[in-house]
Write a structure and sequence with these properties.
alpha+beta; about 25% strand; about 160 residues; six-stranded mixed β-sheet; 6 strands
Length: about 160
């Protein structure tokens, strides 16, 4: 009986050791293959805000809130269609600098002033910027006073991937 137990343990032990070694080796390879890095993609516009406009980490790109109007870029705020075009053009430029494009956008979130008044006009322009399938989207509606700056009607951010 003891002999049988000894033989079983000799058979299992080398296998257990091999599996443990391979698992550790596989983990080491995985860690070296995937090392997400946090790289800031600079905006073409100077900013004093304490945030990054665009971050690339691995195969993902994160763009922070892009407003529809900045007084130093355009004299008048314009209507919602002017502002969404402006925000989406800036977003497109940041995505391209990061190595991707509007077709690779996965998720969009918007803060929209007076959504009952502005969403229909915004959607008329918004759809022109994204090929099918369109990214998922959500929005938060608020009053003009809660947009953070006078004159701004929309702020948009997104997550995209890089092929």
């Amino acid at each position: 009986m003891k002999r049988r137990e000894i033989l079983k343990s000799l058979t299992i032990l080398p296998l257990a050791g091999a599996l443990t070694t391979k698992t550790a080796e596989a983990e080491a390879v995985q860690k070296s293959d995937w090392t997400p890095k946090k790289v800031a993609i600079p905006s073409p516009y100077p900013s004093t805000s304490p945030l990054s406009a665009c971050i690339r980490s691995g195969h993902l790109v994160f763009i922070s809130g892009v407003g529809g109007w900045y007084a130093d870029r355009r004299k008048e705020p314009g209507d919602i269609q002017v502002q969404i075009r402006s925000a989406l053009e800036h977003m497109r430029n940041l995505l391209e600098k990061a190595g991707t494009n509007m077709g690779n956008v996965l998720k969009v979130h918007m803060s929209l002033a007076e959504p009952n008044k502005n969403i229909k006009a915004l959607n008329e322009v918004y759809g022109e910027y994204f090929p099918d399938p369109k990214p998922v989207r959500s929005y938060t509606g608020c009053s003009l006073e809660n947009m953070g700056r006078e004159g701004i009607l929309v702020q948009i951010d997104c997550i995209a991937y890089i092929d």
